[in-house]
Amino acid sequence: MGRILAIDYGRKRTGLAVTDELRIIATPLDTVPSGKTIDFLKNYAASNPVDCFVVGESKDLRNNPSESSRFIEPFVKALKREFPAILVERIDERFTSVIASRAIRESGLKKKERQDKGLVDRVSAVLILQSYMESSKLSSQNQS
Predict the structure, then answer these.
(1) Beta bridge partners of 33
(2) Which of 94, 122, 128, 139 could form a disulfide with 15 if both were Cys (CB 3.0 to 4.6 A apart)?
(3) β-pairing verdict for 87-92 and 26-33
(4) CA 60, CA 58: separation in Å to the nearest integer?
């Protein structure tokens, strides 16, 4: 069984998170410059089976595409073109950065560690992945 890899695509940086092989646990993977995300994913997928990419879908409070959608949508098209055999799913990412920032603040990390800008991106990707895993579990339970 391949892994599920979550992508919190941003203008400058992209946070990545991945499941274990059994798809039980979501863990942070890395933060990469957004322009290098596809290359990073090619290298990762070459040595790790990936069945699905989950990309955060940026929406505003009225459920319309947010400002950052204009950067994310071209990335999603490139992702599908580069990895035609891997499923690409979208999931609402509203408030993941806010929740991630709060979790980091409350985690007890030292101030120097909290200043790592990529940390919020990685934690946001974990939140996206956990949300996807929970929604997948609920939908499979409802089909039973």
Answers:
(1) 13
(2) 122
(3) unpaired
(4) 7
